[in-house]
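Hey, I'm writing a tutorial for new members on how sequence and structure tokens pair up, and I'd like a real worked example in the thread rather than a made-up one. If someone can provide the structure for the chain below, I'll link this post from the tutorial.
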Amino acid sequence: MPEGTIFRPSDSEGVRVPVMVIEGEYGKFAVLETALLGLVCQATGIATKATRVKMAAGEKQVLGFGLRRMHPAMSLMIDRASYIG
């Protein structure tokens, strides 16, 4: 899916839609599976909440202060996901 695409768990006919497809031998990427799932889950959750806040705010300016509760190493991912959202 292109970045910033709004996605749902299934399409209009109820068919589940994958967000990411990884091809290859499972043993070669299994070690990264948990990290990839965590990154996608965290980033999409932040982008979704940012979108909802901006929609509720309408034309008002929105500022984010989410980094106060997260590890500083995640700041770039959080800021990027918020901006995309």
